[in-house]
Write a structure and sequence with these properties.
Number of helices: 6
Number of strands: 5
Largest sheet: 5 strands, parallel
Helix content: 25-40%
Low-confidence stretches: 159-167
CATH architecture: Alpha-Beta Complex
Radius of gyration: 15 Å
Number of domains: 1
CATH topology: inorganic pyrophosphatase (n-terminal core)
Bound molecules: manganese (II) ion
Strand content: 5-15%
């Protein structure tokens, strides 16, 4: 499964840089920072950075790291919640040693050495909960990660819709409500 391939790539990397789309919404920040929190909780020795422009209106939610060009030399790059390459915030996304796409929009612009695109998912944050589930115990969802992913899931779907209308995966939406 693609989820297992992505977990294996994360497990094999010492350094991971995570990108998301320009003009970020809660799912972009939630999936970006939620994935960073998952990796930090699961593999404390790995170096994890998040990049992209800081958003004045969402600075209460997230601040980005200072990522240098040299940082990409040995990095696995993961782009979340971004369908097409022109919208990726920080165009150095192709400078790493390996590129992974994780997204829930239609796959209009396939990119990445590994790509997990699930248009039936309500949010990329929901996909990351699924990634933890398929991580064979290697990935941990701590409180910090749960807070990010909750913000992303609610931001993209609205809680009422998650419960009553648009939930393709009731068990996972139940998890969102518990978070
Ligand atoms: Mn989204």
């Amino acid at each position: 499964m693609i989820q297992e391939d992505i977990v294996a790539a994360i497990a094999a990397a010492d350094h991971i840089i995570i990108h998301r789309h320009q003009r970020p919404d809660p799912d972009a920040f939630g999936s970006q920072c939620g994935l960073a929190a998952i990796i930090k909780a699961s593999f404390p020795d790995k170096r994890v950075q998040v990049t992209g422009a800081d958003s004045p209106s969402l600075s209460w939610l997230a601040t980005m790291d200072e990522v240098t060009d040299a940082d990409y030399k040995d990095a696995l790059v993961i782009v979340v919640d971004t369908a097409d390459t022109p919208r990726i915030d920080d165009d150095r996304f192709d400078q790493g040693t390996q590129l992974i796409k994780i997204d829930h929009h239609p796959n209009d612009d396939p990119y990445g050495d590994l790509a997990w695109v699930a248009p039936d998912a309500s949010s990329t944050s929901e996909l990351l909960v699924d990634l933890v589930t398929h991580g064979d115990g290697q990935l941990k969802l701590d409180n910090d990660a749960a807070r990010w992913l909750y913000a992303g899931i609610v931001g993209d779907t609205r809680a009422v819709h998650v419960q009553q209308h648009h939930c393709a995966h009731p068990a996972r939406c139940g998890l969102a409500v518990r978070l």
